[in-house]
Amino acid sequence: MDITVNILLTIATAATPLLIAAIGELVVERSGVLNLGVEGMMIMGAVGGFGAGYLTGSPWIGLLAAVIVGALFSLLFAVMTLSLATNQVATGLSLTLLGLGLSGMMGTSFVGQPGERLPNLYIPVLTDIPVIGRLIFGQDPVFYISIALTAAVMWFLFKTRTGLTLRSIGDSHSSAHALGIKVIRYRYLSVIFGGACAGLAGGHLSLVYTPQWVENMSAGRGWIALALVVFASWRPWRVLAGAYIFGAVWIGQLHAQAFGIPVPSQFLSSLPYLATIVVLVLISRNKRLTMMNTPASLGQPFVPDR
To answer: Residues 200, 20: contact at Cβ < 8 Å?
Structure first.
């Protein structure tokens, strides 16, 4: 039973950064913007969060720094694509390459240094309940933030007037502009929110998942988060389910290696990415499901009439 609980705990820990990054990107894409720079923003959040936590001795300051770094990095993308109307795909890819290179340079002095870890929640009596106590009342704080963030985004998009406006911009930015809606303003705020979420996901990697700095420690999670948004058909609750499925695959291959299953370790390590490809292929076969919730203006530049 203890082994089962530990596996479930590690699955939740592995799924948390995927969920946060994907929820942020979902809001961005619902506004009609395609940001492929999630990986770059995550790794910058990871190095920024670790550096701030290491220098101040406070993981909470590190977590805040990760959010700020991610938001600032996304602001660069917003200026390029929304104000200067550059190609969103090319700019996002450039942002990822910049983030990977810049984080490696910034984190050189942090390699091998002990990190500050966010402590897990402990509630007397409740956390001590067998099995469910640690699963529900003994997780790290970012886990609870990710669940609350998912619920908040779901409520915002489908229960508020502002959320309806945001979705209308994603479906037809020209019609929204004709109605007097500030399209660029909404998209700026959405991109910054997505960047802050990606930064928070990166901070979770370096302050909770593995409290240390390792170059390229995001290990493709930003790309999996992008795939999760498509996998979920732009629905928050499906992102939650998908994140935990991918988290289970990620942790499953690690435990398979630990148990000595006679399969090449390279193949086991590739399973999360292989699962991503398989899911995307299966979804692409169902055109109706793919087009049903896809924002019609996704990836299209918008230049307001002057």
So the answer is: yes
- Is 301 contained in some domain? no
**Percent of the chain surpassing pLDDT 90:** 56
User: Taking a C-beta distance cutoff of 8 angstroms, is the pair 81, 140 a contact?
Assistant: no
DSSP letter string, 215-266: TTTTTTHHHHHHHHHHHTTT-HHHHHHHHHHHHHHHHHHHHHHHTT-SS-HH
Total count of domains within the chain: 1
Which domain, by its residues, includes 145? 2-293
Instruction: Output the domain CATH number for residue 46.
Output: 1.10.3470
Q: In Å, how far are 224, 246, 267 from 11, measured between CA atoms? A: 15, 9, 20
| pLDDT tens readout for residues 194-226 | 999 999 999 999 999 988 999 889 988 999 999
Q: Which backbone phi and psi does 299 adopt, to 5 degrees?
A: 80, 0
Contacts of 223 (CB under 8 A, 6+ apart): 38, 39, 276
On whether residue 302 sits in a domain, the answer given is no
Record the pTM. 0.91
